[in-house]
Amino acid sequence: MPEEARLRYDLRGLKCPLPVLKTRKRMENLTPGALIEIETTDPLAVIDIPHFCNEDGHRLEQAEPIAGGHRFLIRKRCS
Q1: Does domain 7-75 have CATH number 3.80.30.20?
Q2: In a 10 Å sphere around its CB, with 0-12 CB exposed, 13-18 middle and 19+ buried, how is residue 29 labelled?
């Protein structure tokens, strides 16, 4: 089965609150249920991104450490 399509968004090098602000802005034009994968080097992203998802009704599908930062997979809320 092929991997589900996702938008990749590189936010490495940006500091709080820019990763969340830019993710929120990028997600405005995504269709409900779409996946976005973001990478960030901001150490506060491990707190900020899950909080953003919870507050805006998105589902955090995956969060994992990567070299120098973190990768998050977010599914846009369906309604």
Answers
A1: no
A2: exposed
